[in-house]
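Lecture 7 notes: from sequence to structure.
We start with the chain below.
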Amino acid sequence: MEIAKKSLIEVIAGIWILAGAVILAGVFFVPNPLAYVLGEIVGSLVSSLMMIHLYCNLDIELDLPEKKAVNHSRIMSALRSLIELGALAGSFYISRWVLPYTVLAGLFGRKLAAIAVPFFEEWIQNKNKEKGE
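Predicted structure tokens for the same chain:
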């Protein structure tokens, strides 16, 4: 679980780094910058909470028998998807304060950060090799 905890921290850091990049890339080009920023923060916060939920459920599923673990994983995955869809749908109702497309960008941050973690770890290993040589 130590490797999973390290990966969790790296993914959450990646989510917020991507959020910062999205905010800096577009905040000056939209008519309502506050709603733009709040949308990205909401999406990134939901993504971070979903990663914590995934980590906690992974710990639970490791203690379950295989069949129950698979069922539990499917149910929790569906729950996370519903929460993300709920956050996105809710942003349409309060689009005056939270822009839906930046909420979506924040939600995609979870996927992009998870994809980027192996590349980041490889980069760190290469840096450590260079220092050691």
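Points to note: The CA atoms of residues 26 and 52 lie 28 Å apart. The mean pLDDT is 92.
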